[in-house]
Amino acid sequence: xxxxxLDVSCGxxxxxxxxxxxxxxxxxxxxxxxxxxxxxxxxxxxxxNIDYCIGPDTEIIDAQNNYLxxxxxxxxxxxxxxxxxxxxxxxxxQSHGTSTIxxxxxxxxxxxxxxxxxxxxxxxxxxxxxxxxxVPSHIPxxxxxxxxxxxxxxxxxxxxxxxxxAAGISEISxxxxxxxxxxxxxxxxxxxxxxxxxxxxxxxxSGTNLTTCIASGVAADHEAVSxxxxxxxxxxxxxxxxxxxSVAGNLRDCLKPIKKNHLDTSNTSIVTDDLHxxxxxxxxxxxxxxxxxxxxxxxxxxxxxMVTINPSRMFHVEHQIGILAPGRRADIxxxxxxxxxxxxxxxxxxxxxxxxxxxxxxxxxxxxDSILLNTMHMKRPVTPEDFHIHVSEDIKRVxxxxxxxxxxxxxxxxxxxxxxxxxxxxxxxxQQDILYIAQVERHGKNGQIGxxxxxxxxxxxxxxxxxxxxxxxxVIVLGTNFEDMSLAVNRLNEIQGxxxxxxxxxxxxxxxYPVCGLLSDLPAEELAAEKExxxxxxxxxxxxxxxxxxxxxxxxxCLSVIPEYAVTDHGFIDxxxxxxxxxxxxxxx
Amino acid sequence: xxxxxLDVSCGxxxxxxxxxxxxxxxxxxxxxxxxxxxxxxxxxxxxxNIDYCIGPDTEIIDAQNNYLxxxxxxxxxxxxxxxxxxxxxxxxxQSHGTSTIxxxxxxxxxxxxxxxxxxxxxxxxxxxxxxxxxVPSHIPxxxxxxxxxxxxxxxxxxxxxxxxxAAGISEISxxxxxxxxxxxxxxxxxxxxxxxxxxxxxxxxSGTNLTTCIASGVAADHEAVSxxxxxxxxxxxxxxxxxxxSVAGNLRDCLKPIKKNHLDTSNTSIVTDDLHxxxxxxxxxxxxxxxxxxxxxxxxxxxxxMVTINPSRMFHVEHQIGILAPGRRADIxxxxxxxxxxxxxxxxxxxxxxxxxxxxxxxxxxxxDSILLNTMHMKRPVTPEDFHIHVSEDIKRVxxxxxxxxxxxxxxxxxxxxxxxxxxxxxxxxQQDILYIAQVERHGKNGQIGxxxxxxxxxxxxxxxxxxxxxxxxVIVLGTNFEDMSLAVNRLNEIQGxxxxxxxxxxxxxxxYPVCGLLSDLPAEELAAEKExxxxxxxxxxxxxxxxxxxxxxxxxCLSVIPEYAVTDHGFIDxxxxxxxxxxxxxxx
Lengths: 589, 589
Fold this sequence. Notes:
Two copies of one chain form a homodimer.
Chain A: H1 3-9, E1 17-26, E2 31-40, E3 43-48, E4 59-62, E5 67-70, E6 72-74, H2 86-94, E7 98-103, H3 106-124, E8 130-136, H4 154-161, E9 166-173, H5 174-178, H6 182-193, E10 197-201, H7 207-215, E11 220-221, H8 227-235, E12 239-243, H9 251-261, E13 268-271, H10 277-282, H11 286-295, H12 300-305, H13 309-314, E14 332-335, E15 343-348, E16 351-355, E17 358-359, E18 397-404, E19 413-422, E20 425-426, E21 435-440, E22 449-455, E23 463-466, E24 475-479, H14 482-494, E25 498-503, E26 506-512, H15 524-540, H16 550-556, E27 565-568, E28 571-574, E29 579-581, E30 584-588
Parallel strand pairs in A: 1-4, 1-5, 6-7, 7-8, 8-9, 9-10, 10-11, 11-12, 12-13, 18-22
Antiparallel strand pairs in A: 1-2, 2-3, 5-14, 14-15, 15-16, 16-17, 18-19, 18-30, 19-20, 21-22, 21-24, 23-24, 23-25, 25-26, 27-28, 28-29
Helix pairs in contact in A: 4-6, 8-9
């Protein structure tokens, strides 16, 4: 028991810090009223009339009649998608009012295992970002369809759940429940026994399949992409995480049934899932989503509840965070009002962290644990020939299924196209936007290369590659020619991972990701600038495409659990059939 | 994982039971719409369109367009207050739609310890009432002010929290937090470490004292008795349990700030605290409270949420109960609508338990564990002289503070009165309604007798006594003369506890409580009839009094944590000063 906190709360001792002259957004009652907040150490000691807490040494922050909200909570985010190392990531989102994230560090786990995740959590301790660890449930995501460095079996998951920051298991695949994946069900039982939260990944799941997933204990899902999916989840007793991130933006659609049917909002929250560093810098984080919700006509307090008490209650941590109330962590945002919602100042774990948009606390760079470094283990350099897709030499044309993708959607759809064959090698078709795509195993396990065809990126020349390929993090490469593709992949191996743009034998842009081949050590603004440069280089190589964040979209093309197609080191994947298929479906001699 | 449940949910197997043609009250979304519910074993398999779950052997219940609600949850009730043994209690409240209770069995714990509580939980296993055990935090309630048979130290509480049904600790005394009771704070830390719920008992606590209690981690309180207390608790981030029971009825007052300020209701619930068997029989349980809430203008779904999802979410068990959704326990009420709200039929843990008000499942009487029996251990029979309050023989009159109590209020207030003295013995004054009251230790520890004066009961002759005296369960006796008082107490010792009415040397009514001296083995209706007879006997001995349930009010006069006064075996207690005081404050010679 924190007796000093109790002493401050009752006026026996003075507060370390107070915020005065605020408009308190009380997410517990749904009210807004004038008042202040007194802080002792990392915790809130009192809220309301807190004059009695002010002593001679108390730091006084005048909110100047601005709003005071709890620090925001992102109930489902993968920090790795920002490509920022954790301290820079923390800084980036804290400056937008986020104080807590629920995250599985799944990507780190794929490359460096539970030990790697613990090393990242250790790095994060230097920051005041509050992290709940939601243990990844599916590493690898699809064991029979991809190669990862690590495998999380029920024992690993059980071990992860012992972590003091553990609050559940994440990304429980709906399809794996439906197919009665024994290891997954076992892990779910372990988690339920510990009274921790079962977080779903119910992409594309509806009807009786959804019923089965909820019956199995799944408490929340962040994969609703339409009005009907959102409504169905809520009616089924499934907490609706309305995703608004860099890859998928479903908030507006998810809000539709809520507005239309005047639904109870207490079982809804806003999450990001993935946040691109450029978006973090230019748009923000949950503050940006609140602006969208407000623009959609959601009441101010209701919108704030969706990023505070609602997720904290969902994870059973409302006694710790998500409410401006005594005993909770002193994570306080000073914000403007609903008309032009902005984070002005941030108090983080009791310390003034950002004042009038000026960050006061700068985190030192981490000396990364060795388990996080030197993780690129390709069996051998690739050659251009490695990317050939062969057919019999007498075939002139083949009809293929290519994956087509779009910006802000994880889903890939099929597009059929006829491609020419030269000397038994299927040729891409830049006119039709049917390009080569491949994934090269990089964990030193088997050196496999899976190949397929891709549409949507509109590259006219060159190749792009990166060492981030969900959820196995082998090297994914897209190109118009085999030479640029092999150059890109080999260079990534040399620099221990990253993202690269190659055109006609020249490297136009490269950003290295020394941490697990996933994370840069650049600060957010610098990394965003580098990425903008890379994107510009890609744009210069492209025709008209809707894909504005090509590397992020590229990394999702390997995701063998999101319909309809994927490419992994095993080959071209039919997600619903859960098997490798031949992209070639017909030929002409 | 319950794989058969999953098979039913997805249509691979048929349901055991379905309810069709219902109006589903969806407490998750706040909607009401037509649909059915499919049940597999004890659990809900599907909700909505469940035609696919109906097989040739499925039991079909036609709801005839009535409403389907989740079984009700009482987040704070002491079953012992009904004086029913647990199976009869279960039957009584299940017939009113209650499927789950959160309870500490504190009274059993006082008399028979944790082992006794476990014996009661074992008895309850025969029923389908769902019980979460909220470990009592304060046995004895006030160690320096009363004698109990057992003491729950942090080790006992920790042991209790290991129980599979444990969901928190209960009745955390606000005053003990404020006085920094070391054992209590230690128990709270143990509970918080286990991520279980800290349930407060914050009677009379407000202002900075309330702030301190919330800062210590208290998550809920059931002791708000006024509009301002209710508002203050909610604004402080404290779940508001609005009590509407046999002893205290605070629901209307608690609803006032909610209606006035349009507060978020998701952090409010309705609880009983104490439910008299006569009320259970004549009025009902939470169904009766819902009728009050509806009459107060609360929306139907909101009222249902207050006794379903809200308490279940408060206790972090919303994945198990409180929602009509797949995977939850199949506790379903078929009810009439808001105009004339009644429970028509009850499905309990998947079985049709009551059909059109006819109970189908009758529980067999329990063979009580020996730890629950023969618990009256008075050191010796009392004599009339034991109840004398002596002063010096030359004193003619004394001024005393008597406790005054009223029906439906736990609080006692002081009333000053002058009393005559005869031969150095202070005399009661029937005209002024200042009577003798005493508590006699009965756990075989010390044989102490505490004495004081009482107002409010208006007895004109005789005495009443019972072996229930919160929270120590010594024998409490109220009377107009010493002879009837001693007869009453000694007879209670002979019959192993109960309640008794004596007048002029004759026993007018006695009901025995063989279980811990607290619980009868009579079914609810029979016990209620016996109690009505006893009440009638008391009424015949009384003038005009507002006290309609004299034995229940009597049992609360010993509660040394509810202001302003109490009597225990230690003597007359000033609750706020936490000490024994002399009821005599002045004298005339």
